[in-house]
Design brief:
With 545 residues, the protein is an alpha+beta fold. The chain contains ten helices and 29 strands. Helix 4 crosses helix 10 and helix 8 packs across helix 10.
């Protein structure tokens, strides 16, 4: 009886199922969610066509149309790894996917990196404020409720300026210190330099500054501009330091003239070509570096990687590769940089391996120099690598204050002139490691690594993996994997070489060395560094920012 009832119920349900489905289909559907309102950008009240992408981190704006509307130039390098935005006379170097940019010689960290998007590269509003805002006096008001960005000229700000003039070793350093970053333009003309205010006004010091200097005749400050009058035959270079904001001018004669005892001052120019590359295997001797779970030491693997890289570069390119050490020996940080300077290197690459308290950290990191770390992890990494067991510097673990003082003394403004190129080079290395080896992108960072301080050329430090991670330690002991790492580094160097020399790279990583060509071999014993000048007083050249 129960079986008959069950089959009867099942048959009835089968007959009713199409009716129920049809009825369900006839039920009124909920109205579709309204489409989000179109984002818009206005410049001085005029709407301009700029792509806008809303992300969880905030809005991103198409840079190309903004640059065109605001009178700036935007160009890309041949490899497509970085772009240069020129606003008046200031160049802004941007790495795709990197939150670190350079504005002139100033290093700036963004909370959100520029990315590829609709219409090309897209940048966060923070980028616009730190570039067009600070350099040209624009305000950027984002209204998320109506998805609108309003761009307008800001009113004039009144600000004071402090002047410091120091002459040392044939160079006069003029430091203009402001309470905040002004909006200005530097104009050079024969015999003079002018800092012209853009929308800001200066409060001239009273009494007017009196300057008695062999290279600078006078400094005149009025509300609209600052004018440096130079002696005939003097040349000038300018750069920016932060915290506080300082505009610095180094003035020297066209032909280097020594006016005081000590080494002659020369400001190395960016290379016209890449001819000599110094490769630095991290650690050595009793300075073992990181130790992996199986007992392998960082110093051993960095030397193997450096030897392979030097050989690969000389095989594939017309370059000379010099190792800071070719054996398992202790080598002070300062000597490594001195070897690069003495060999007139065009690039300096310091190779290291990372370590972490946990065993799960993995991936590669590439660093360039800064007196302040970009994040706490970068600071810890620099602290670990800065330990000096070579005997010519204090041990940071036993005397942190002395180590910090030493870092400040070793800071050399020569590297300031190469920071944008160091960043560009670091971006290329990190990109190759990420894409070719599918390594975790830990990013391009900056930190006060002692081994990079004083380098008079583009210089980077690359951490090629975590020895504390058993899997990465095992891979790093595999010759085939190390060869892949070396290939990635060689490709990045080849691409940067092609960029600097303004030509397309040849097959592989560059033109091969002609058969029979002889390249100088690295020195068997590294030379000791020459004495370094101490910092100048008053925030001038040689003092830390």
């Amino acid at each position: 009886m129960k079986d008959r009832r069950f089959w009867a119920s099942l048959a009835l349900f089968s007959l009713l199922l199409p009716v129920l489905v049809a009825a369900q289909g006839e039920r009124p559907q909920a109205p579709p969610a309204p489409a989000p309102s179109r984002s818009s950008v206005t410049l001085e009240g005029r709407e301009i066509p700029v792509p806008v992408t809303i992300t969880p981190g905030g809005p991103l704006f198409g840079l190309s149309p903004l640059a065109a509307e605001m009178g700036a130039g935007l160009t890309s390098d041949e490899a497509g790894e970085s772009l240069t935005l020129k606003i008046d006379q200031t160049e802004v170097v941007i790495g795709i996917g990197s939150s670190i940019i350079t504005i002139g010689d100033q290093i700036v960290s963004l909370s959100q990196p520029p990315v590829q998007g609709e219409g090309g590269i897209q940048v966060p509003i923070e980028f616009l404020r730190k570039t067009f805002g600070d350099l040209q006096g624009y305000s950027f008001d984002w209204r998320p409720d109506v998805s609108r960005l309003a761009i307008a000229r800001r009113g004039a700000r009144e600000m004071q300026v402090a002047l410091d003039v120091v002459h040392l070793q044939g160079v006069t350093t003029v430091v203009l210190q402001f309470p905040e970053a002004p909006r200005y333009h530097v104009k050079e003309e024969p015999g003079a330099v002018e800092v012209q205010m853009l929308a800001d006004r200066l409060t001239p010091p009273a009494p007017p500054p009196a300057v008695a200097d062999p290279l600078v005749q006078s400094v005149t400050i009025n509300p609209q501009q600052i004018r440096l009058q130079l002696v005939p035959g003097a040349e000038v270079e300018s750069y920016v330091l932060e915290n506080p904001f300082r505009l610095v001018f180094d003035v020297h004669r066209a032909a280097a003239v020594e006016t005081a005892p000590g080494p002659a001052f020369t400001r190395p120019a960016l290379p016209a070509g890449i001819r000599t590359i110094v490769i630095d295997p991290g650690h050595g001797g009793r300075e073992t570096g990181a130790i992996g779970p199986s007992g392998v030491a960082e110093k051993e693997l960095t030397l193997q990687l450096a030897r392979e890289l030097a050989s690969r570069l000389e095989q594939r390119m017309s370059v000379r590769a010099v190792l800071t050490r070719s054996e398992d020996v202790v080598l002070p940080h300062d000597t490594r940089t001195a070897i690069a300077n003495q060999n007139k290197a065009d690039l300096f690459v310091s190779i290291h391996l990372n370590s972490s308290l946990g065993s799960g950290a993995h991936g590669a990191e590439t660093y360039f120099l800064s007196t302040e770390a970009s994040d706490s992890r970068a600071a810890r990494s620099a602290d670990a690598e800065n330990l000096d067991l070579a005997g010519d510097g204090p041990d940071a673990a036993s005397d942190p204050a002395a180590a910090q003082d030493l870092q400040l003394i070793l800071w050399d403004l020569a590297q300031t002139h190469h920071l944008s190129e160091s960043q560009r080079f670091a971006n290329m290395i990190q990109g190759e490691l990420n894409e070719t080896l599918q390594l975790r992108d830990r990013g391009v960072k900056q930190a006060p690594f002692r081994v990079l301080m004083g380098a008079a050329m583009p210089a980077v430090l690359v951490e090629l993996g975590f020895l504390s991670n058993p899997d990465e330690e095992k891979k790093l002991q595999d010759p085939a994997y190390r060869s892949d790492l070396v290939d990635a580094l060689a490709r990045a160097i080849g691409r940067y070489k092609a960029l600097v020399e303004n030509r397309e790279p040849a097959a592989g990583t560059g033109a091969a060395t002609p058969p029979g060509a002889q390249l100088p071999s690295p020195p068997s014993q590294p030379a000791r560094p020459a004495p370094r000048p101490t910092p100048r007083p008053g925030g001038g050249a040689g003092a830390p920012p």
